Every structure is written in C-alpha cells, then in structure tokens.
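In the design runs reported in the main text, the only information available to the sequence generator was the tokenized backbone. The following block is the verbatim input for one such run; it is reproduced so that readers can re-run the procedure and compare outputs position by position.
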C-alpha cells in the first residue's frame, strides 16, 4: 500500500472511530450506524477488495454458516430473538439515539444484524473480511471495531433495510 493509501485508510478509520465517539450512545448500546459514501472508502475497506467482494465464496449468502437456511441465523434461535435480554446490550443506533435493531453472533462466528422486529438484515462471515452483506449477498457495510464496541458504516440502501 502506498503512503497515500495508508493515509486515506487511517483518515477513514479515524473518522469512523471519531463518529462512533461523538454519537450519543445510550447505556449498553455499542454499535452506532452511520451512512457513508462507498466511493470515499479506501480500496481495502470497500467491496472491490478481494476479501470484501460479494462474489468471494466465503462471503456468499449460500455459504453454510452465512445461509438464511442455517437455524443459527434464524430469529427462532434464542440468541437472535428481540426478546433475548442479551440483545438489549447489542443495539444498533443512529446519531439521534433511534434504535434500528441489534446484532448477535452465531456459533460459527457469523455476525448477524437484525431489525427491531427480529428480521435478519445483514451478516458478516466469520473470517476474512470486515464487510457485512445483505441477506441477498450485496455488500453494505464496513465494520470498524474498537475497545468499546464498533461502528457500522453503511450504504444508504443497507440503512434503508432497517426501516422496511
């Protein structure tokens, strides 16, 4: 990576962390959601990077652990239910504090994002990428993790999935 690429990546990640720190996060909520312009992301965080590419077999919605058919990704699994008290501590919120949903990790390490009604919106495969994909396999999010949770930087179309 060139010096310019490292600088752009550091600036983008710094912005995500800063935005995450500025969001008025209610107690227990640790996943602020911000809308981003995907064209402003450095290459290694966007969908063009091989690890983040939706066409990569490990990122596919048909891969066994990512699949909607896997009961570990279903709202019927206790870990994924909106009524599970643990999910009250894993909220996805907006800058104004609006709760959009929650997240839960399945036994295979896949991170699932759900709306407030328990509908699965997106997933992050267990390994190899910081990107999340819609249940139909479209790239929609880059995740920046930190000591106090993570920030979800999503495209407009992915953010719209939470309000359907």
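Verbatim output:
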């Amino acid at each position: 990576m060139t010096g310019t690429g490292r600088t752009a990546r550091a600036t983008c990640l710094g912005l995500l962390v800063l935005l995450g720190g500025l969001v008025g996060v209610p107690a227990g909520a640790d996943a602020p959601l911000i809308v981003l312009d995907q064209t402003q992301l450095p290459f290694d965080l966007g969908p063009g990077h091989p690890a983040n590419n939706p066409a990569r077999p490990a990122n596919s919605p048909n891969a066994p652990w990512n699949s909607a058919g896997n009961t570990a990704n279903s709202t019927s699994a206790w870990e994924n239910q909106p009524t599970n008290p643990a999910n009250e501590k894993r909220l996805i919120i907006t800058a104004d504090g609006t709760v959009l949903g929650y997240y839960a990790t399945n036994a295979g390490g896949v991170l699932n994002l759900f709306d407030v009604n328990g509908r699965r919106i997106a997933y992050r495969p267990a390994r190899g990428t910081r990107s999340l994909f819609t249940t139909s396999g479209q790239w929609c999010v880059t995740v920046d993790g930190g000591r106090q949770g993570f920030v979800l930087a999503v495209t407009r179309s992915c953010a719209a999935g939470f309000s359907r």
